[in-house]
Amino acid sequence: MIKKILSISGRPGLYRLVSQGKNMLIVESMQTGKRTPAYAHDKVVSLGDIAIYTPETDVPLTDVFESIKEKTGGKEVEYKNLNDAELRELFAEYLPDFDRDRVYTNDIRKVFSWYNQLIAAGVTEFKENEIAEDQAAEAAEAADAAQVKN
Fold first, then answer.
1. How far apart are CA 18 and CA 48, in angstroms?
2. Phi and psi (nearest 5°) for 141?
3. What is the pLDDT of residues 37-92, one digit of tens each?
4. 2 and 62 in contact (C-beta within 8 Å)?
5. What is the pTM of this model?
6. Using CA atoms, how far apart are residues 84 and 89, in angstroms rounded to an integer?
7. Cα–Cα separations (whole angstroms), residue 100 to 34, 91, 108
8. Which three-class secondary structure state does DSSP give residue 44?
């Protein structure tokens, strides 16, 4: 599920991948439900590909979302009125060992914003069916590669 949720640079909010066209993706805004194309020149990132730095390794964003969900009981995070120090302190409750030098305050705001948008859109499972999705994505990539060869 989370692999099909996209962030597009320069566009507000999150988008759900609907389908792929030639040199573009068809995406649907999670806030408005409006479908629009995302072209090859747009910087598109799947939330499933994002990780947060820690001193030892990188923690997948899905793990961070799960931690936030557990501690908030699946409710949205109130973060907008916090200053930078308070925001970092709050984030440390969810991911205590995040790398304080490489994780910027804007990154933390973005994580909380994305989490709240997902909860508002009814997305509450961040890890379920990941293996099945990975296999489906690999199968789709193989099918695309086969079509290109023909």
1. 16
2. -65, -40
3. 999 899 999 999 999 999 999 999 999 999 999 999 999 999 999 999 999 999 99
4. yes
5. 0.81
6. 9
7. 37, 10, 11
8. strand
